[in-house]
Amino acid sequence: MFSDPDKNLAQLGLGEGMKVVDLGAGTGYYSIPAAHRVGTTGHVYAVEVQKDLLDKLRSNANAEKVHNIEVVHGVIDSIGGTKLRDGIVDRAILSNTLFQIEEKDRDNLVLEIKRLLKSGGKILVVDWLPGSPLSPKICVSRMTAENIFTKNGFVLEKSFNAGDHHYGLVFTRN
pLDDT of 52-100, one tens digit each? Predict the structure, then answer.
């Protein structure tokens, strides 16, 4: 089975009224299901650097009558690049994105996530399993991802199978 956003989001403990940021949101593969889970009193910030993908996300959300997503044109691998306030979200999502971040910028990505999350907030990381026939040439292994987050002040809460070609991790911000 390919990666299922609903099953993976269930690992994150999203609830009614929560604020969530989807970093590298693309066309909304995770943003839209997250918006359903947080309900009309919740809010999803969908951060993406590619404007054409944000337009597609807006269109996809409108087609599904989802109105609690705010699209944000921003950069996720620099501190302050998302343009969102400190401690603004309860949960964060980073799916199929870590492998795209240059090694030298990964700490800044994690520090930006830490800046956005409230104390005790959680992040869902879903990324490609190295060696999968569908994975890109460059992958970030589960162990490398764990190391990047834990050295920057996160605690690994759980690791899970996120589909045939992906791993999943949930971290808590100290």
Answer: 999 999 999 999 999 999 999 999 999 999 999 999 999 999 999 999 9
- Tokens 């999502």 identify what position? 93
CA 55, 57, 63, 66 dihedral sign is negative
Q: Please tell me the pTM assigned to this model.
A: 0.97
Q: How far apart are CA 15 and CA 18, in angstroms?
A: 6
Q: Are 82 and 93 in contact (CB under 8 A)?
A: no
3-state secondary structure of 51: helix
Residues 27, 57: contact at Cβ < 8 Å? yes
Q: What angle do CA 162, 14, 167 make, to 5 degrees?
A: 15
Does domain 5-173 match CATH 1.20.1050.10? no
Distance CA 127, CA 20 (A): 19
d(CA 84, CA 50): 17
Structure tokens at 127: 């990324």
Q: Rounded CA gap, 78 and 75, in Å? A: 6
Could you tell me the residue ranges of all domains in the chain?
5-173
What's the rounded Cα separation, in Å, for the pair 163 and 132? 11
- Determine phi and psi for 83, rounding to 5 degrees: 70, 15
If you ran DSSP here, which 8-state letter would residue 4 be given?
-
